[in-house]
Write a structure and sequence with these properties.
The complex is a heterodimer of chains A (115) and B (112). By secondary structure, chain A is mainly beta. Helices cover 0% and strands 49% of the residues of chain A. Chain A is globular, with a radius of gyration of 13 Å. Chain B is mostly beta strands and 112 residues long. Chain B has no helices and eleven strands. In chain B, strands 2, 4, 5, 9, 10 and 11 form a six-stranded mixed beta sheet that branches. In chain B, strands 1-3-8-7-6 form a five-stranded antiparallel beta sheet, with no helix packed on it. The chains are: A mainly beta (115), B mainly beta (112). The interface between A and B is medium-sized, with 28 and 25 residues.
Chain lengths: 115, 112
Amino acid sequence: DGGITQSPKYLFRKEGQNVTLSCEQNLNHDAMYWYRQDPGQGLRLIYYSQIVNDFQKGDIAEGYSVSREKKESFPLTVTSAQKNPTAFYLCASSITGITYNSPLHFGNGTRLTVT
Amino acid sequence: SQQGEEDPQALSIQEGENATMNCSYKTSINNLQWYRQNSGRGLVHLILIRSNEREKHSGRLRVTLDTSKKSSSLLITASRAADTASYFCATFPLEYGNKLVFGAGTILRVKS
């Protein structure tokens, strides 16, 4: 079945450590996205990528970094510079980021807890 | 900044009743989408309505869009316990590039 796989489902880290969240898709989608979700809030865009080797900052990119070396992979690194990293992280993809009318397909998220 | 705002924040109904959720937004949009999120899971796309459409149906779902009032509603008819989830509206603002902007969501609980 085609879909988006995020791993791990739960992740625990000590403050000051960098951590990388994995996101892989086999939908052959061009565009991929990372969102952050905090309790009782909507999703906020961290980074997005419309094609391989290209990505743009979203609304809350500070303290995060990404790479897009392969079409199917879009890993997110949460660095020690991110002040409040504990959150639920969602990866998504769409056929293309250029066509406004393409819906997003989401993975099942990674819950990161930093203590 | 968040574009869409859902109302109510939470809704509790009995199985078989209809559930209506509303979404208001601030700027002109290309389209508006509704998503569902079960607890601890990712979002699932439900329906997309373009700015030149006024109503759209998908199974037990009915979505309306009023661009003059900058609002949309999602109606779930004959609700089931399995409809218990959070529901989000998301918009593609015309002047916001290729980015979908989500509201804070409505938590729906359907009691059996």
